[in-house]
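Take one protein record:
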Amino acid sequence: MNQRSNDVGLLLDGDPSAQSHEGIFCYAYDPPLNPDGTPAEILAHMGAHARLVDCNEIYARARGGTRADLLGRTAQQVLPGFQRSIRRLVDALIENDFQVLGLEMDLPHADGRTLRVRMSCLGVWQDGLIVRAWGLWHDVTAERAAQARATEASSLLRTAFEHAPNGMAVVDLRTGRFAMVNDRICAFLGVTREQALNVQVGELGQELLNPDDLLEARRLKEQILAGGSPGFECVLRFNFPDRGEVWGRLSASLSRDADGALRHLVCQIVDLTEQRATESERRRRELDIRLSQEVLGFGSWEISLMDGEVRVSEALHRLFNLKPAHHLRRSHWRELLHPEDREATVAAFIAGASDIDPFTVTFRVVLPGGAVRWIESKAQVLRDDQGRPERVLGVSQDITARRAREEEHRLFTERLRERQRLETIGVLAGGIAHDFNTILAAIRASAELVEMQTTLSESSHRHLSRVLSAVHRGTELIDQLLTFARHHEVQAQRLDLNAHVCELMSLFTRLIPAEVRLEALLASETPHISMDSGHLSQVLMNLVVNARDAMPEGGRLVLRTAIDEVDAPRGKALGVPAGAYALLEVSDEGEGMDAETRRQIFDPFFTTRGPDRGTGLGLSTVYGIIQQANGTILVDSTPGEGTTFTVLLPLPPGDAPP
């Protein structure tokens, strides 16, 4: 027998029968190699007295020595603790005609490990005893460890497959049937495991799937089978007799065998029915909230006090005229505030954020494009577990229209109160005027009787003339009071407002100093009014003279006429019916008036002039004349910025523009 480079064999007994097994020794002494280059086989040759006749170096190393150390030792010495395995080996030889192939056993290693070996053994028998035996061990420790790991992994995968939260199935592409299914997919499909494993997947899909979704699933399957993609995912609709329409998301991926051929389709299905119902309900609620916000003009928002992030609803984007993708921060919101309201609004929000109760802040914003809107915000501060302010949640509403209505109501109430006050004053003034008129009539009659006497001295005549002159001035004042109280009979006629203003312009130029620039801006479409001509002249004269006196240093005095359409809300605020009106406007660049002066401007005997300049009945008379003509008069004035009187008189029937 040949000696190999690292593996040496030796026959000590010289038994001729050993020569017939030369092939075994050649194989064992030149064994196949493991992947790491180490020999994979171990050889031991036991003699008649159960002593080691020969072995290779691999066996010697496994026993912790050299061949020289081991040769001639007994089986007990070279195989300590191996008696039970020896007994198994002997029994196997007896049962298998002195030859054992592939018997796996544990072989103790000198380093303390236990090797798993697959042993082939050939025995020589004499007189019913084994006199010589050759053993060849193949180390399968790593192989069995790999198999154990694979078995464990397979068990884990099987457990994961069976207990997956979603439906799992493996489709055998050769048969078109399920190779594996878990309980969840059986419950989803409404079949037992046995039924699932014995049904054609295509037939089941055709029976349960929505026709449109069935075509899409087939298309995706053909696509991956053709190599277009390693898998697909799609949402499908299933129609069950007892459950109705059920939504599911199907995910599928391909599995190939060792040769790369398509073998299985691994599928997972998730029941989306409840999720889609929840999502549908969520979208419905979001739609309800969005529509309600749009109808009510509300928009919701949230401000993080930690990083300044601002999140707003679509309705608030529309409310502030912002693009949906506009990213807001607190600094951007501050820039939207009206400059006049910015400081007070920020202070109000800071004060509200320090309180635990909800708070309300009203302010103006300047939208992109320049429009000014009134906003009312109701907010609540949310705090963390330590009570520190964390977020501010709120809703905002455009209250511009409401503010306009409130302002109209305020003006209406104010004008109504003013009208009632002036009417009360008018009643009082009318009563006093009538009484004084009676007194003055008696004085006039007595003075005229005395004046008719011829025996009066010149001095007495002078005194009587003064009395009669005073009675005349008193009568004029009484006439003005009666006009204010609307106790005069008037002769209304159809007048051309433009023509009347033009007629008086020459008179006004003589009354107005050169420092005052008089201008007339007349309507292109002539406004007509129904009014006493003298009363119209009196109105114009009083307004022009007041404007002149308000500009002692000179300035611009403008008379303007126009036709003005008054709608119902504005008419309610002004206290006149809606319709077409002739507008007469007298404006100056004079000293202007404060609010208290404006409030009393039409009161009888109220004047801002000195005691020797006027009676204070001029504007009272104007007010009475305008009221008698079913019109109204407005005053707009700011200290230092001038005054504008606006007279609205109804157009005669038939003159209103179409």
Summary: The chain is about 40% helix and 30% strand. The radius of gyration is 58 Å. The first helix runs from residue 22 to 29.
